[in-house]
Design a protein that fits this description.
Elements lengths: L2 H13 L6 E3 L5 E3 H10 L2 H21 L2
Antiparallel strand pairs: 1-2
């Protein structure tokens, strides 16, 4: 997947969360759904971390379903 495709995927997953959802990103802090969406959209540090976590989750889901 391209960076743009990954960003769109992460944004789609975040957008279904409740607007008052808070997301904890390790030592980076807590972020609202909208702050997370904005960071993913702009390619910010938090957005990149969220994309990385999302891709790891998808890989583990795929590996788990193939066993």
């Amino acid at each position: 997947l391209s960076d743009e495709e990954i960003r769109k995927l992460v944004m789609a997953r975040l957008s279904v969360l409740s607007p008052d959802t808070n997301i904890s990103v390790g030592s980076e802090g807590n972020f609202t759904r909208d702050q997370a969406l904005e960071s993913v959209k702009n390619g910010g540090k938090i957005g990149e971390k969220l994309a990385e976590v999302e891709m790891e989750w998808l890989r583990s889901l795929k590996e788990g379903s193939s066993t």
